[in-house]
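Backbone shape codes:
***
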Amino acid sequence: MAFQFPDPFVTPEFTGANGVTYQWDTADEKWVIKGFQVDFDDRYVNKTGSDTMQGPLSVTGGRNLNADGIASTVETLNVDSGQNSSLHLKFDGATQVYVGEQQTSFQGDIKFNVPGRSLYAGTIKKGFTLNDQGVFYEGNYTADKHIATKKNVEEAVFHDITDPDSNKFVKVDGDTMTGNLVMDDSRLDFENRRGGQVMIRANREPGEFPVVMDLPHNSTGGTVSGGYDIKLQGNTAYNALRFVGGDTYMEILAGGGAPQKVKFYTDVSLEYNKISKVANATNDDDAVPYGQVKSELQAFRNEVISDLTFGTWQYASGSTSPVLGRCYFRNASNQNSGISASQVTRMVFNEVDLTGAVGGFDRIDVGEIISLTNGSITIKYKINSTAAISGSQSEVRSFDVVFISQTSPIVFVDGINWTFTLTEFTDISVDQLDDTYLRLDCANDPLASELEIKTPDFGEASLILNGKRDNTNNSAATIKFLNQIDTGESYAGYLTYRSTGTQHGYFRFNQNVDLNQKALINLSSINLNNVGVIKANDNQKIVIRNAGNNNEGNANVVIERPPNSRRGFAIRGNNSSNVETDLFWSLTNSSGGDAINYTGNIVSSTNIVNKQYVDNAVSGAGSSLPTGGTSGQVLKKSRSNNEPAWQGVVDISTSGQSRTIGEMWYNQNDGTLYLRVS
């Protein structure tokens, strides 16, 4: 089919009657085929528009473009199976990738040729990043099904991911933790422990008492009684709970045939608290309850003591021979008016009391107790003589007494009625009492030589004097020492304890204390009276006072002068030969005055010096002093050569440079005299 090509410079592309589209190639200056019409030839696939074909399409050539621009490459934007069937991507005839409607399957490994490429969904590139070191997850970690990274896991496990010891969880092979461990309806088991292995350990700071086990009362428990048990099981006679420290202190057996279920292996201090509801003792080594002691002592008292209601008398101090129903008392000065209960030394009665009954004065024995009662006041005396008979009708009875106690202090006043009770002692010999009883009232049966308080076994023996005072003017407890040869009060020795009950107390001696060449140890201080004296063989050596002025001889501490040719005080130390000697001491001379001497080192600028050092220094300095000089000049270091030179007192100069504090100079230019002060 013949046709005419148009002018290519006017129409560079046209379609001929044969259905072929031509395009002018300006480089080669010729027409080339660009394409065909769809229906041009059904043996070929159209380059434009849509078309179909059957059989494989083989694109030949190399992997890269050759010199003619040919390569085995399919360039397209979409590859579609075109039907409801998966799309296969094959390698050498074998399918490697299946692309289906809901999923894509890979038969082999998935490799990214360039490291750092990602797998992600959506427009935000948060997914997996792959390189030759591993796979990184860059996505969020907020939803339950998000993938966790190593960092996410470490942050969940450790407080500080750089510190492996900051684990938030307790390791199964041993670890430490803080905070509460709550085990709801569970228990803590320790299995297969051997020997001295520790199961529970606590730690504390000095001075603290942390709670190791807190067992509270459930707030919903109300008033229903309950508690907690520590239960021992197994072969109960051979299963024990022990409290140990340096030694075993207490042991609790689970039961069984053990004769004692609880054992203590050391002394127990209750810190002045009580043990209550103790059974009566049956064996010699049993604990004895107070009630049993009272009961048995009361039974013994009833055997040896009886109380006799003696009668009621009215106090009347106006007559030396009291009338019916009257009595009065005397003190050590024989006074019977205005005396206090503790001053009474003798009682005088009419033998008939206020009811007309005759008192049982013939029953009075030395050592018995007579008690006076008026309302809530009770006073007790020990009878110290038999009742004497006097009066014109032999109606007066009198006897000596020693004050024992009173429920409250009183002064006897006329007109007050007193009921008397006599406590009698059975006529029993001391030999009848066994070692169970200690005779405390020795007035009528004094000890032959000494009283020994001895413990039956290892332990402390003690003697307690328990008084009651709210001031230190009087003693709360006293021990009195007397000599039978001279019982004068001036020779009596008193050891007293004084305390107000609200502050620390102190002991007081009323006589000198001779330590018989023994030492006072562990003293914190010595508090002397003002103008206190320290002596040696009664010779006054040191006087200590609170000085009230600066007068000579009135210093806080005065060291007295010893006889001539003696050292009064000395401070010792090592000399230059490292031999201990007196370094600083006073020396008394028979004439010419006393002296203070020093022979220690004179090296440092803070060392003190002696006369010899000064003499040597002056003598050495004098050998290099300049000669000459005139009246009015002084010796100063020259500013030109820093050597000593005779100069005027005031330097004449216009310069104030390098002047020392206290130096004066006159500036002749301004007519001013200068003095440097800082």
